[in-house]
Specification:
alpha+beta, 4-stranded antiparallel β-sheet, 9% strand, extended, disordered C terminus
């Protein structure tokens, strides 16, 4: 491999020949682009083509699209491969931390000199804690040496993280491993060079002394010493305890050395005026006390304890499986200076890819690493019973990403999805669709979030992925419609129970699916976000129970989608109540028909459980604008049969699942029929009333049929027709029929 690696150099393996959509200008030599929105595609006459993925196509791909891994749809196997291998993925890691950076270059001689200078300065600090360096050039040299030390340690941590990330990416694409081995060896050699340079800044004896200091039990403190009387009788004990704990914690800061710990004597007299009598004596006594502790630590760190004797196995924690790459933090960033010093000094045979380190350390250091306060989980080298296991490369085929799991292959050829596949999807495609249409022989076709799919896979579920939300065709979703601007008065007439005319064609519109789509669009900003939310809304509508879509936050459905699925507007159920059961008017006893199974979601439907029921969209609900597994599900038929509900007075207690076109059509027809019945029962109207108009309206209602006859059972249909016939007879006999108000 050359020094400059490109996408065209990477073996494509099973993805060779995959069809991808590319865009270009009208020229044979024009660059190819993986996205029409690419900034380097500067033409209004764009050509679109489907080409087979090969080396020639990758060489023609523009640098921006190559860096972003454009060309494959996000969430597919090909898309994840191109994104992970792209110039911001594996290629970036293979070409970084191979040699000293050109802008931040240093020589081995400079590193050795800086380490020696800092070691000498630490000794001087320990001998004379009162004086500061007066020589400006010496201070500048010390600052430069400290900066170089930080730079070397930073590069060592970065090189280790880069090597680990490269090896982790290769586990998903094993056909690239052999090609990447030369670069990995170069990175490993440079990592060892950085480790050796970092080790020069660490004093082995100070590491052992620091371990002894942190392990010392608290000695008897001289609380009755007259020198500390200036602190106040009640404060002496607590002040000395704080001084001891501060001294122990400072021992882990190996860059400062014992001279910095001597300065802690100033802490005990903090807050006391410099002119106050006894302040100097208290500080001097504190300095002598700290020096005695230093002697205890050095005595505990006997010369024999400074020779490496114990062999330990360190286990570097890894991010949990499925953690997105962009949120993974390097474990070394959270270690203290003492643990970092131990790693660069006594690590032997490090296997960063597997997360296992072998350490040969003195006894005192070993006791510290094996203790509960250690930042690095360790165990004896010969003890592996309960050692943490790395969830990395298992060598099993199911975890490898190949065509046939996430790609647009024929459903007949789909491979069963595994838990490793879902974790790879979360790691390599953190913006993957939260909802997927899946199929299994046990459950048929279902719409499930990834978290539910993971739980099922752990229990042996066997199925295939059919499509994600982004896979839905644009022709099905339709174009993004502009936001409708309604006047407040017009908007109010579309809500139930606000004085609107039931014969208006827009009656009850806010309850339907179309209004849910508009609500989602109005609350979503950005073209791409709108398109995604519309697809999620379309896919989520296929779920029988919305509680199954609970994936938790932040991986759940966006709030805008929930507002498209649910509405807090109430149904006016007067037409379906029995005559005389409504205090505000008589019911018509119409059948619920398609409305009987309309779903209602509430946080609490049981009156025996303390707390009012809230809509999942209510601000008083414990969760934020989403249906969760713990919510209760009712149907409209259940709601009408209950009289013991305790609902929230603000939200009404529940959210209604938006009505389908058939349900909304029947809701409107029932209200029209109920309105005619009330007119005929009340015999109200004016002289211009037209009985023939009422009869024509009844004839129209008599022909109402749902799109799906299965939703219109024989008894409901007979009851509906009987009510229409009775009202027609009443209208024919009446001489004072008014037009619908």
């Amino acid at each position: 491999m050359g020094s400059e690696l490109t996408m065209a150099d990477v073996p494509l393996g099973p993805f060779a020949g995959s069809l991808i959509t590319v865009y270009s200008a009208k020229s044979k030599a024009a660059k190819l682009h993986g996205s029409r929105q690419c900034r380097q595609l500067r033409t209004s006459d764009v050509m679109t083509a489907k080409v087979s993925l090969d080396e020639a196509v990758l060489r023609r791909l523009c640098t921006r699209c190559a860096a972003r891994g454009a060309g494959g749809r996000p969430g597919t196997g090909l898309g994840m491969f191109l994104l992970a291998i792209g110039e911001t993925g594996l290629l970036c890691h293979l070409q970084s931390y191979r040699e000293p950076d050109e802008d931040e270059c240093w020589t081995d001689h400079e590193a050795r000199g800086a380490a020696e200078l800092l070691r000498v300065q630490q000794r001087l600090d320990g001998l004379d804690g009162e004086d500061e360096e007066d020589d400006a050039s010496l201070r500048k040299a010390r600052e430069e040496a400290e900066n170089l030390r930080g730079l070397i340690f930073s590069h060592w941590c970065g090189a280790r993280g880069s090597l680990l990330e490269a090896e982790a990416l290769l586990t998903y694409f094993p056909w690239v491993e052999e090609w990447a081995k030369p670069s990995l060896r170069i990175k490993a050699r440079y990592l060892e060079t950085l480790r050796a340079q970092a080790a020069r800044f660490v004093d082995r004896e100070e590491l052992v002394v620091a371990a002894a200091a942190m392990a010392l039990p608290m000695p008897e403190l001289p609380c009755a010493d007259p020198a500390f009387a200036v602190l106040g009788g009640s404060r002496v004990s607590s002040a000395l305890v704080r001084l001891w704990r501060r001294w122990q914690s400072t021992a882990a800061r190996i860059w400062e050395g014992p001279g910095a710990r001597a300065y802690l004597s100033c802490e005990i007299v903090r807050g006391i005026r410099s002119s106050q009598k006894g302040r100097g004596a208290a500080r001097a006594e504190a300095a002598r006390l700290i020096e005695s502790w230093e002697e205890l630590a050095r005595a505990a760190a006997a010369p024999l304890d400074r020779v490496p004797k114990r062999r330990l196995t360190g286990h570097v924690p890894h991010a949990s499986a499925g953690t997105p790459r962009h949120v993974v933090t390097d474990f070394l960033d959270g270690l203290d200076e003492w643990t970092l010093g131990v790693l660069v000094t006594w690590a032997v045979q490090p296997e960063w890819g597997s997360g296992v380190l072998t350490l040969e350390v003195p006894d005192l250091v070993a006791e510290r690493l094996l203790g509960p306060a250690s930042g690095l989980p360790c165990s004896p080298a010969d003890w592996t019973a309960d050692s943490p296991k790395h969830e990395g490369r298992t060598g099993s085929e199911p975890g490898r990403l190949r065509p046939g799991v996430f790609d647009d292959t024929p459903v007949f050829d789909r491979c069963p999805v595994t838990l490793d596949h879902i974790r790879a999807l979360r790691t390599l495609a953190p913006t993957a669709d939260p909802l997927h249409l899946v199929f299994s022989a046990s459950g048929g076709a279902e719409v499930l979030p990834l978290s539910t799919l993971e739980r099922r896979l752990t229990k042996g579920w066997l199925g295939v992925l059919i499509a994600g939300a982004s896979d839905l065709p644009a022709s099905l979703i339709g174009p993004e419609e502009p936001e409708r601007n309604h006047d407040s008065e017009v908007r109010a007439t579309q809500l139930p129970g606000r004085g609107q005319d039931v014969h208006d064609p827009h009656f009850g519109e806010s309850l339907g699916l179309a209004e849910g789509r508009h609500r989602t669009l109005r609350q979503t900003y950005g073209t791409e976000a709108r398109q995604l939310n519309l697809r999620l809304l379309a896919l989520a509508r296929g779920a029988h129970d919305l509680r199954s879509l609970d994936a938790g936050r932040p991986s759940g459905l966006p709030t805008e989608v929930w507002h498209g699925l649910l509405t807090e507007d109430r149904l006016n159920l007067a037409p379906f109540r029995k005559p005389g059961s409504n205090r505000r008017g008589s019911g018509s006893a119409l059948p619920l028909g398609p409305l009987a199974a309309v779903q209602l979601y509430t946080t609490n439907a049981n009156p025996l459980i303390e707390g009012k029921g809230h809509s999942p969209l209510c601000r008083h609900a414990q969760h934020s604008a989403a249906v969760v597994r713990g919510d209760d599900l009712l149907a409209v038929a259940d709601l009408m049969a209950r009289t013991d509900s305790d609902w929230c007075s603000k939200c009404g207690g529940y959210a209604l699942r938006r009505l389908t076109d058939t349900q909304l059509s029947y809701y409107r027809a029932a209200h029209r029929l109920h309105d005619i019945k009330e007119q005929l029962d009340n015999q109200t109207g004016g002289p211009d009333a037209d009985p023939s108009g009422v009869i024509a309206c009844l004839d129209e209602l008599a022909t109402w049929q749902p799109v799906d006859d299965a939703e219109w059972c024989s008894s409901d249909s007979w009851q509906w027709q009987e009510t229409v016939r009775e009202l027609t007879r009443m209208a024919a006999r009446s001489h004072a029929v008014t037009r619908p108000s």
